Amino acid sequence: MGSQSKGSLDGVQSDVKFKATAKWEYMSASVFFLVTNAIGCTYAATTMVISTIARSSGNKTILLMITILDLVISGLHFSANGAAAAEGVLGQKGNSHVQWMKVCNVFDAYCRHMTAALVLSIIASSVFLLLVAHSIFNLHYYRSY
């Protein structure tokens, strides 16, 4: 996921040409984003099998525990999305108070890829949260009667 580019910093065109590499491993928020999405994907695949078995056997306790863990995973997803979004804002705008320059004008492809990944992750996290809410309503209705 590395990228090399020649460009300018701070929007000032420069005659100095340089070679720079950006890797997702350099930012801890990107690592957190990737690891959280990998954990969520593995968890979803595992609980899909477990919940199918629990529904067929009528075990409501396992379904309740899965729903609680679903909320935890949903919280992890949204926190990773927030961390990646904050990193993206720093890449787009920089931070003049601590002399961090914006870098997305240099690493355009990297920033576009991270933005696309973040947007898709936010959509997926929102859908996952709606599925958890649906599961809670179904579990409540199932327990009530």
TrEMBL record:
| Gene Ontology cellular-component terms listed | plasma membrane
Specify the species: Vicia faba
Q: Identify the keywords attached in UniProt to this record, alphabetized.
A: Cell membrane, Membrane, Transmembrane, Transmembrane helix
Q: Show where the Casparian strip membrane protein domain sits.
A: 17-125
Annotated signal sequence is none
TM segments?
Answer: 26-50, 62-80, 116-137
Q: Which PANTHER family match?
A: CASP-LIKE PROTEIN 1U1
Similarity comment: family membership = Belongs to the Casparian strip membrane proteins (CASP) family.
Q: What is the name of this protein? A: CASP-like protein
Q: How does it assemble?
A: Homodimer and heterodimers.
Does this entry carry the keyword Iron? Answer: no
Name the domain of life. Answer: Eukaryota
* Compartments where located: Cell membrane
Membrane topology term reads:
Multi-pass membrane protein
